[in-house]
Amino acid sequence: MSEDLREKNKQAAEQQKVNSAKNEKKEELKSEIYSTDANDLRKKLSNKNAEYVFKLNKYLTENGFKEEEAKEAIDGLLPEMIDNQYKGIPANQLYGPVTQKAKDIVHPAKKVKKTPFWASWIDTSLLFFALFGVLYGIVALTSKKQDPNSQTGIITLIVLSAMWGALLNWFNTKMKLPKSERPGWGITIGYMVVGLAFMFVFLAAMTVVPATINPALNAIGYFIAAVVAYGVRFIFRRTMGIHDRSFF
């Protein structure tokens, strides 16, 4: 039994070495392709890919591109085209029909502007401020008398919104990554638990902060603060060009 296990481990180790060698060879080949002159790459095109390049060049020149411009645009595609050619993927499968690829070159799609973390954080924090403002307003509206040790002060509202904004924005950012780059659920849940623990500690600490430092507003004040925060968020999103949703 132990001999069989050792033999299996030996075979697995050998297979791993073979796979590693294959991957290294692929990377070396890819590096060589991307460093090769475009004119030399054209000589390596298969008949199908050469025909694709010919038709693409013709379509571009017939739609306003100068010969030099068409050549430059196609030269930029050659490394990827040759790389996939070696994998058995022809250009028409990689890029789709010639007419479609030509239209993509003539009318390139605008790259979606990536929102920096700090901007997403502010955006999400403002949303939480508006939500908590409404919640605090309802609490103030339904409370018969104000608790001197209340946690619902304006400083609490600001800091709590910033904390939730940071935590949820971090979570959203990680969940939008490719599956291979996402942290495991154990790590994600761990961060969420630590973040929530900090919030509870903060809320507990705010009970001993005097009302002069952390004043509470009345119900109308909180509702107005919520509306203002949401309005500021609306303007901020338009100014920064943010189109992402704050939550999934």
TrEMBL record:
InterPro entries: DUF1129, MFS_trans_sf
Biased segments, Polar residues type: 12-21
The organism's place on the tree of life at top rank: Bacteria
Pfam families xrefs: DUF1129
Bias-annotated ranges (Basic and acidic residues): 1-11, 22-31
Claim: Transmembrane is one of the keywords in the record: yes
Keyword Protease: no
Residues passing through the membrane, by range: 117-141, 153-172, 184-213, 219-236
Keywords: Membrane, Transmembrane, Transmembrane helix
Record region (Disordered): 1-33
Name of the featured protein: Membrane protein
Record organism: Companilactobacillus nuruki
